[in-house]
Each structure stands twice: as structure tokens, then as C-alpha cells.
Input
Amino acid sequence: MSNLRIFAVNQKKISSLHYFNNMCSSKIRASLKRLKLHVLLGRNYSSLPGLIGNDIKSLHSIINPPIAKIRNIGIMAHIDAGKTTTTERILYYSGYTRSLGDVDDGDTVTDFMAQERERGITIQSAAVTFDWKGYRINLIDTPGHVDFTLEVERCLRVLDGAVAVFDASAGVEAQTLTVWRQADKHKVPRICFLNKMDKIGASFNYAVESIREKLKAKPLLLQLPIGEGKAFKGVVDVVRTEKLLWNPNSDDGKDFERKPLLEMSDPKLLKETTEARNALIEQVADLDDEFADLVLGEFSENFDLLPAEKLQTAIHRVTLAQTAVPVLCGSALKNKGVQPLLDAITMYLPSPEERNYEFLQWYKGDLCALAFKVLHDKQRGPLVFMRIYSGMLKPQTAIHNINGNCTERVSRLLLPFADQHIEIPLLTAGNIALTVGLKHTATGDTIVSSRSSALAASRRAKREGEKKQKENNEAERLLLAGVEIPEPVFFCTIEPPSMAKQPDLDHALKCLQREDPSLKVKLDPDSGQTVLCGMGELHIEIIHDRIKREYGLETYLGPLQVAYREAILNSIRATDTLDRTLGDKRHLVTVELEAKPVETSSLLPVIEYAASVAGDLSQASREAFENGVHSACLQGPLLGSPVQDVAVTLHSLVIHPGTSTTMISACVSRCLQKVIIVCVVALFLNFS
Ligand code: GDP
Ligand code: MG
Output
């Protein structure tokens, strides 16, 4: 044991986690003071355009917008950058709320869970649907806290585009980087909004530079701020060479004017803007051949004559190709710059049909949808959020779940408006809806109209696969890529107030798990206690809170523990013999194996066979060997935590006739444990 070493990898992540948790608890204290306990906040949601009273029919006109006019977008950011405030302003200007919500008062629309209001953070992403200048926008508010990265991943998959919100005084922050990479992974086109331009210390240039350096993205400056910090008054539209000034006497920012920049009144600003516009045109021309032809031909002499629309179309293409990102700025809190942000969302982010989803060709217009979130509603049962990629969905019809291989019935369709849901009779491709009635569908499932539709799509995929000689399994390609569920990092025991309440607790945990696959529930085999495993302290605290609020159960949590893993850092080869006589039977086995570290972050040991043994090993001996390896990896030598990232190679296995497979496993396990003990072992946290 002398050469065992303990060290923690990811120390940074651990400390940042504590930082977030501490930050949140101070926020909780602060906001608890403000919270008027149990008073539901008076908000009026009945101002939906076209909705007179509860007349569902009048919604017909707005439920099926043409697909080219749909934008499925998300807002992503570091905690506190202003996602929720920006969302609130967006909903207000689009006419869907009548008063401005304020995160600091805990009455925003998207942070609708009670805990979110108290803590002032966004936990569970809520989809919100609204219209802006003839466009239908489905907005998903994604959480920014590290404990909830699964939520972010899940949402990014259903988005066609995203707005990254930055605190202009801080530039790119840690969580923005994480989310930005996740968006890269899902190839989501983005625009950037530099928020908090009114804050002391806000710097447009600094924030733009940090986008360039930290995110390695090419910023397209579509706006320039007029003033910074306290002097921030409005923005310049670089594309149109216009200034946008907000009326200082308007308390909701609805009143602003757009004026062309003139040599007479704004010589300095005009000069800066013209330079910025010329730079923008050159930058876009570098990235887009079609635009380059136009610029070099007709307008090479004078860029000022180039119509704004031509430049906008080219920026749209560049944004879609993700070779650069448009950058806008403003102050959500001070109600400046949000309307142009909405215009930019409709202008530059793609419609669903502009995204290239390969699997769509196999459905030929049949229903294909993805269940991306399950919520539990006490009255209505499970509510499943769906993104529809092709075909249409109607209430009172059966659907087929490919992952679950089952057929279910949708009873009702709802249009999500934060915690308000509006019943609708039909939903078409490109949109997001909530379904009622699906009992077996879980997060990440692919939904089609029927089993035969799935088979037909599978046949088409197969034919296509043969043509292209692809090796992918066609059935798998029919499923929309699944969300990777990270391994839990923190755990603690949870106890009901009395044994009689155990079934209630089990039920509550089952519902919560279907909603949130990153929550795992285990039974401790030694104590028989229920163990909660989650992504962080805050995650577990929230679950505890929700069990109390939503299921009326006061539970007790044990001390929080960290789910460490152990790994070996060098390779060692060893031999072991087990010779035991039980009754009149002799069990004799000799094993020679080697353990070596692997970098794949695989939880289960990788098992390999040396060429010398591979041929003459019976299936039973193989299984016995593998069982032995698995059981040895269950507990490492340092803290008894599971051993991972290890590959085990069998070099020889000599078995005396009559030796039981249990004895083979025991010998293998003992040999491997001996090997692991003499290796250099490291303790770490798995945040994959
Ligand atoms: P989120 O965590 O990204 O959802 O951020 P919030 O919208 O909850 O905002 C975090 C804090 O920043 C709150 O105290 C807001 O009042 C404040 N905030 C949001 N937008 C602005 C802004 O444009 N300017 C300033 N000065 N503060 C802002
Ligand atoms: Mg928020």
C-alpha cells in the first residue's frame, strides 16, 4: 500500500460548485426576505392575441404558422448574465405579458417553480410560445447552473438557434464556455447579446474581444453602443446606419425612435459606423462567396450603396453556416435593445426547415417527434414536451414510441406558455407542444404515428444506407440522438417521516426521476435506506424541497457524500492460484492477468483476451472471468469507491477439471484486487 497516492482531479470544478452553492444560498436568504409567503403572484395571461375569453377556435389562426416563420430558440448564458430578465422583456414587448416581471422581486413568468422564484435562478427550463412581427417564436429558457447541465443539453437538441446572453462587464464566463461547447456539439447557430451595457464597468470592446479569444468565434458587430455604463442611451444599427434611442421618460422601453445617422448631427458616430459597416461587409464577403460576388461586382466602388437587405441575407447564411456570430448589445433591465434583438432572432436565426435533419427524408411527411421533457402535473398526470420535426400531431390519436416500442394515446395537446397551457386542436412540423395522456413516454424518446410508419421509415433508411454503403444500424439512426445522462456526483440518504410513508416517497421519487433522468435513486443493500444521487448539493436540495412542496412529504436527508471514483495510473501483471477442497471436490485454478489504465472514462472495466487464450476459452469460463473482474472493480483500495477507466487482459487461465465457475471468479477477483493495490491509485470525481 506504500505507493498509493490520493489526489483530486477537477479541484477547480469542485470549488466552483461550492462557489455557486454558496452564492445561491445567499440569494435564497435575500429573496426569502422579499417573498410574500404563499401569495400567488397576480399575473394576467389572458392577453394572448386572438384568444377571446377561452374561445379555442379563435386560436386556429395562430396555431399553425408557416414553417418558414417559426423560430425554435433558446437563451443560454452564465448564471446572472440576465437570461430571465431578457426573457421577461421579450415576452412583454411581444405582447404576451402586460406588466414587466422582475427577477429581483421573484415574479417572472419563466422561473415558475416556487424554488426558482425564491432562489432567483432558473432551474427547470420552460418553453414559452409567442409571436413577433408575424413570426412564431418558441423560446426555451435554459438553466445556467452547473448542477443542471443535463437540462441544457436536452434543450439544445430541440433548438434551431440560440441567443447567448453575456454580462458586458464580465465578458465570457465559465458557464458560457460550457454551454457554447454544448451548442457547438449540437451545431446550433447562435447570436450574441451583450447585456448590462448600463452597468458600471460595462465594455463593449472587452466583451467582443473575449468572444473572439475565449470562444474562438468570429464576432460580426451588427450594433455599436451609444454610451457605456451610466451613459448608455441606445444603439447604432450598423447594417442600416441608423441610431436607436430610447425615450428616457418611457418606463417600459416601448417608446424608442430609429433615425438615420447624418453628417450634420452625428459626424463622429457616422464615421465610426461607416467604418464598422465597411469592416462588417468585408468580413461577411470573406465568409460567403455569393455575397463576395455581389460586393466585388456592383458595389465595389461604394459600400454605402449596398442595400441593407442584401447584407442581412448574407449574415443569415453566415450565421447558419456557423462561420461567424452576429453580436448585438443592450440592457434588458433598463429596457434598451431588446426589440432589435427580437428582430435579429427572426432575421438571422434559422427556421426549422433550414436545419439539416438527415432522418426527415425517411419519414416522407409522416409524424416524427422527439419527447424532450416530462413534467408531472398533479391533475393531468405526465405532460410530455414534444418537438415535432415532420408530419402533424392531433389529440385523441394513437402514436408509436420507437424507444419504448409501445403505442400510446395522446388525449390533449397544449401550447406551452410558461406555467399556462392553452389547448389546441392540431400541431404541425417545426413546433413545440405539450401532450397529455402519454404514460410511458420518457425524456429522449422518438415518437412516430404508428409501428408501420416506423417500419416504412426503417426500410427507406436501410435502402439509403445500402446505397451509401454505410455501416450504421438503420434502426438506431431512426432514433433522434439520445441525451447523454451524466453520472451522479453527490449522494445522500433520504428517509420518510414514518415507514408507512415509504410508498408515498417511492412514488414521488419515481415521478421526479421520469422528469429528471440525472436524478438516480438507489437502495443501500446494507442498511435498506433509500439513497438519492444527484449532480450537486443544490440539485439534491431542490429535490428535497419539491418532495415537500409537491408531494406533501417531510423527508430527512442524511449527510451529503461525494461519489468518488478510483483509477489506476500504471500497468501491472500478476498471477494467482486458488486451490481449495470443498467436501470431496478439489477446485484448482491459476490465472494470469494484467491491468492497465485507459482514458475512455468508461465506468465498466474494459475486458480483453490475449491471443494465446482467446481461442480455447469456454463460454462459461469467459463469463466466470468477467464476473470476477467486475466484482473486483466494485470497491477500490482507497475509499472502497468503484474503480473505473481500467482495462484488464487475460493472459492465461488454467482450470483443473471439476472447478466451479464461482471459484474461477473468486480467483480472478482476488488476483485483480492484488494488482490494483500495488498500482498507483488515484481518487477523483467524475463530471463527465
Ligand atoms: P439569469 O440568472 O441569467 O436568469 O439572470 P437574471 O435575469 O436573473 O438577472 C440577474 C441579475 O442581473 C438580476 O439582479 C437582474 O436585475 C440583473 N440584470 C439583468 N439584466 C441587467 C441589465 O441589463 N443591467 C443591469 N445593470 N443588471 C441587470
Ligand atoms: Mg434566470
